Amino acid sequence: WGFDHPSFMFRLKEFGDLFPFALGGYNPGWNAGTEHFVGVTSGAHGFGMLILPLLKIWDPHVFYGAALIFWFVFAFPWLGVAAVRSAGVGRAGALCAGLLMCGASREMFIWMWHFGTVGAMTSAMMALPVVALGYRLAVLRRGSWGTALALALSAWLMCLWTPGVFIGAGLALGWLWSFRSWSWRTNRWLIGAGVLALALLSPWFWTTWFPCRNVVDYVGTAMAHPGWDVMALAGARRLGVDFQEWHPVLLFLGLLGALFVAPRGLRRWMLPVFLVLGAIAGWSREWKPLSQLDRMAIPMAVAAVLPAAALCGRLLGGATVPRGRRRAWLWAVAQGIVLATLLMGFRSVRTHYANHGAAPVRMLSPEMREWVEWIRAEVPAEGRLGFAGRAVHFYGGGNIAYLPVLAGREMMADDYYGFPRGTIEYNYPPAAYRKEIDSYLFFSRAYGITHWVASMPDALEFLASHPERFERVRSMRMIGRNIDVYRVKDLGPVSRFWEGAGRVEARENRIEVFPADPSAERVVIRYNWRDGLVCRTPGASIEPFPVDENLRFIAVHPGGNEKVRIGYRPHGAPVKPNFDGTFHH
Predict the structure, then answer these.
(1) Cα–Cα distances in Å, from 568 out to 19, 185, 532, 546?
(2) Nearest to residue 251, comparing CAs of 301, 317, 180?
(3) Pairing state of beta strands 384-388 and 449-454?
């Protein structure tokens, strides 16, 4: 439940419910209907592909922790073993690659284990299969359609976190540098793999370029930067810090070994990858500080597993010992150092997974479990729970994005998952409704918010200062902060209908309206109108209904139908912002 893990589970939930028919869309679980496509740009779909059968059976929280352990402790390392073996490395070197994949860099545990950005780390883990399989085809000139298919699928999963394309760019340069070893037979399989990977990626690229354009524009924002000398020094220092987080075997045998003692073909294949990823990891923050591309040092470490494994295989795999007593002694010392460093690295990895490292994971607390049950019992099924002020990580230590799945209730908040600073208000309700009690109550009644919860002093003070309108019904303490829940008084009957009556069943990209009177001219449901909404029931129609100068609900003309189905169709334009100009959320 720490930091972004709930957000990531929420994106996995959306992916499992929608794929293969959509990659995002209209989600009624938050804010009475929002457009969500961030699962595409966050890389969540890469890990979602790996666990898709489970997502079709259970909600993510049922198996999420076990899936993380399975893939990062067992499956990715053994996938690395197989990939390195395909690149011509012996058994001993391949097994060393598997050990190194368990913890190529301590930063992996910061981002995956502690913060929960599992999509980016899944992309990083796929860097080794892509590098190794590409090396097999382009340099060793081995393999055929099976290798090409495995390479295409690996590249597809790697690039589902969009910055994974930089790894592919580095390999493309390595392929150009290796032009002397080109052959028509291997190049056709390599090009075929690239074409297939691009074809598989095309729906994600389309979504990134159109509905998710606001995210791309945000991370691509340039900032004022200092002079070249200062930038060069800052980037070099940052890259040096990244190298300190690498497994020492990867730093010395993987990076330096690839540059100086690896075979020429491997050296030419790896050097462009290291240059591209190293430049991005070290200096991207100077140019695009909001992109967080400095974490590209992690896939760089994973890519270094291939040359490190090749050299480990030479040292430990029964290679001929150099002649002469001095050389044999140095060889034995090198073997001992490599073995000792591998074992020490394995111990450090175990420390992180035992949750004793510097970046521990936070579990769902008993207080949160109790509160989830309270929400189920006290918030009406057709009511909504609102989060006043900021939410951040105060509710159990993680973002609250996944809370509607656990509690089975729709909710409303500003920062329910990790929205970048400056793109939203980090306050709720919106400014037009939170400053005066009358507008606050209008907003509550318009959306059917039966309860407000607050943890910030200003939001708590506002709710407590109007006891005639709000009744405090629960107090609790989480992460050293007092949290109060207030019930809205005199709200009247709770219904999903602003006009008319009936029943509504809402889920991702699908709202089913059952009007009590199918012959009625119009009913209005308390869900936000968005431009991608379409009516899928013949004879019925939908249109926006202005509630006030800002809010627009969905008006439904049943046309005599007992059930009206509303769907959502993404369109080739960026998602429009909120009425207040912030990210639509």
Answers:
(1) 14, 45, 5, 20
(2) 301
(3) parallel
Q: Give the model confidence (pLDDT) of 419-453 as tens digits.
A: 887 789 999 999 999 999 999 999 999 999 999 99
Do 430 and 467 contact (CB within 8 A), yes or no? Answer: no
Distances from the Cα of 486 to the Cα of 337, 376, 378, 400, 426, angstroms: 62, 15, 11, 18, 20
Token pair belonging to 516:
């009590």
In SS3 terms, 428-442 reads as: CCCHHHHCCHHHHHH
Q: Which two tokens stand for residue 242?
A: 């990244």
Rounded CA gap, 565 and 453, in Å? 33
Q: What are phi and psi of 78, to 5 degrees?
A: -70, -30
408 φ/ψ angles, rounded to the nearest 5 degrees:
70, 30
Q: Which residues sit opposite 534 in a β-bridge? A: 567
Residue 562 region by backbone torsions, left for phi larger than 0, else alpha for psi between -120 and 50, else beta: alpha
Reply yes or no on whether the pLDDT at 194 is more than 90. yes
For residues 157 and 115, the answer to whether their CB atoms sit within 8 Å is no
Kindly report the number of other CB atoms within 10 A of residue 310's CB atom: 29
**How far apart, in whole angstroms, are the C-alpha atoms of residue 29 and residue 6?**
14
Rounded distance, CA 135 to CA 305, Å?
13
The pLDDT tens digits for 72-115 are 999 999 999 999 999 999 999 999 999 999 999 999 999 999 99
Can you tell me the distance from the alpha carbon of 540 to that of 565, in angstroms, rounded to the nearest whole number?
Answer: 9
Write out the two tokens for 324.
């002469």
Beta strands (DSSP E) in 210-305 are none
Q: Which range scores top for mean pLDDT: 228-242, 325-339, 463-477? A: 463-477
- Is pLDDT at 516 greater than 80 in this prediction? yes
Beta bridge partners of 73: none
What are the tokens at 29?
A: 């679980």
Q: Which pLDDT tens digit goes with each residue over 355-381?
A: 998 889 989 999 999 999 999 999 999
Rounded CA-CA distance 219/216 in Å is: 5
Tokens representing 44 are 């969540």
C-alpha distances (whole Å) from 84 to each of 30, 89, 305, 340 are 44, 6, 9, 22
Residues in the chain: 585
Residues 194-207: what's their mean pLDDT?
A: 96
Q: Are 399 and 417 in contact (CB under 8 A)?
A: yes
**What are the Cα distances from residue 535, in Å, to 23, 540, 543, 554, 574?**
20, 7, 9, 11, 22
Question: Apex CA 303: angle with CA 245 and CA 201, to 5°?
Answer: 120
542 forms beta bridges with: 556
Task: State yes or no: cis peptide before 429, omega within 30 of 0.
Answer: yes
CA-CA distance, 519 to 525, in Å (whole number)? 16
Residue ranges of the alpha helices (H) in 247-388? 248-249, 257-260, 264-287, 297-303, 305-316, 325-353, 366-378
Under 8 Å between Cβ of 86 and 94: no
AA letter at 582: T
With a CB cutoff of 8 Å and minimum separation 6, the contacts of 553 are: 498, 524, 525, 526, 527, 528, 529, 544, 545, 547
Q: Which of 142, 143, 139, 144 is nearest to 181 (CA)?
A: 139
The encoded tokens of residue 505 equal 């069943």
Alpha-carbon distance of 362 to 103, in angstroms, equals 20
Half-sphere exposure of 175 (CA within 13 A, CB side): 23
